[in-house]
Design a protein that fits this description.
Layout: H1 3-27, H2 31-39, H3 44-70, H4 77-93, H5 97-109, H6 114-142, H7 144-168, H8 172-219, H9 224-243, H10 257-272, H11 276-279, H12 282-293, H13 298-334
Length: 335
């Protein structure tokens, strides 16, 4: 099986999972309740969320420009902003392709090597992953009881009651399904393990080269504290982009910073799942159940999850369109 076939299988598999999760969530959503809840909302907060989202984009561009400057190149803010906006739009449709699109967009406008740009993007991802781990650990420490209840209610109990108990009671169908899933997972594991083993030398070399470029860019930064400040402000922005949504409804306004921290952490995991549509379905399920743990009704939990995801989807598409317009205007000017 060639590389293109593998990529197509991966794409459509993830698309199928996303559609299934989305279907399961939205079929459980009472549309009449959703409409009624929306009518009671104060959507002036929506504009505040969009403004904070825009500021996060601006700070991310400024941080990325620092990395590019550190490897000896300069970029126009408008070009970098367009590239970032387009990349998020592309990643929403085809996960992980946005990073490549971002580098190609800048390469079209500036005389910078693709691998050099990819190195800066890789180091950004490494910094973001480290930041997410810190946020997750902080959430676990400050909200341990709630996180423990979330894991127990949504993972341990469903698996124990839905699988273990039925198998112990002699449910042959559940036993067959469990064994079938284990066989499929094992086959996929061994197949992709062999595939990665054959391809890994070149992949590792490319990754290490890109990582080296990124590390060099970090080491050459003249304003390391400013880079750290930008990173901190980005995550503060993410926090506020979630927190301000709470005030749209009276029922969700009682949620405090602890609930916001939990939704941010667990919701980011949902968005990070490489499923088309920004973690479609997975994000909705996770955020809904976190809200329920904090005492919000299932109806408003689903409404909150739907609106946060829909709002960010709208912003991603709108900024993607803006990014494309800026890119082509600058491209035609350079021509």
């Amino acid at each position: 099986m060639n590389k293109k076939s593998i990529q197509l299988i991966q794409y459509f598999t993830l698309l199928a999972i996303g559609l299934l999760l989305g279907y399961l969530f939205f079929t459980s959503l009472n549309i009449d309740e959703l409409k009624q809840n929306i009518r009671t909302g104060n959507f002036s907060w929506f504009y505040v969320v969009m403004f904070v989202s825009l500021m996060v984009y601006v700070i991310r561009v400024l941080r990325w420009q620092m990395l590019i400057r550190a490897i000896g190149h300069e970029t126009k803010f408008s070009n970098a902003f367009a590239a970032l906006s387009i990349s998020y739009f592309v990643s929403f449709i085809v996960p992980r392709l946005g990073e490549v699109t971002r580098c190609l967009s800048i390469k079209k406008q500036h005389d910078i090597g693709f691998m050099e740009l990819l190195g800066t993007v890789i180091i950004e991802r490494v910094v973001d992953i480290i930041s997410l781990i810190i946020v997750l650990l902080l959430t676990l420490v400050l909200q341990f009881t709630m996180i423990k209840e979330f894991v127990n209610e949504n993972m341990v109990k469903p698996f124990y009651n839905g699988v273990v108990i039925k198998i112990v009671q002699g449910n042959a169908m559940m036993l067959i399904i469990t064994l079938l899933v284990l066989v499929i997972v094992s086959v996929l594991f061994f197949y992709f393990r062999n595939y990665l083993r054959a391809k890994s030398p070149m992949l590792i070399i490319k990754f290490i080269d890109g990582l080296k470029q990124g590390i060099v860019s970090i080491m050459k930064l003249k304003q390391k504290r400013l880079f750290c400040l930008y990173t901190f402000l980005i995550w503060v922005g993410y926090f506020l982009m979630t927190y301000f949504w709470f005030f749209i409804f009276k029922e969700t306004s009682v949620l405090g910073w602890g609930a916001c921290l939990s939704i941010l952490s667990i919701g980011t995991i949902g968005r990070s799942v490489p499923i088309q549509g920004g973690g479609m379905g997975a994000y909705h399920f996770l955020v809904t159940n976190v809200a329920i743990i904090y005492g919000i009704s299932a109806s408003f939990g689903k409404t909150l999850a739907t609106l946060i995801h829909a709002g960010q989807t709208f912003f991603t598409f709108a900024m993607g369109l803006v990014g494309l317009i800026i890119f082509y205007i600058n491209y035609w000017r350079n021509k």
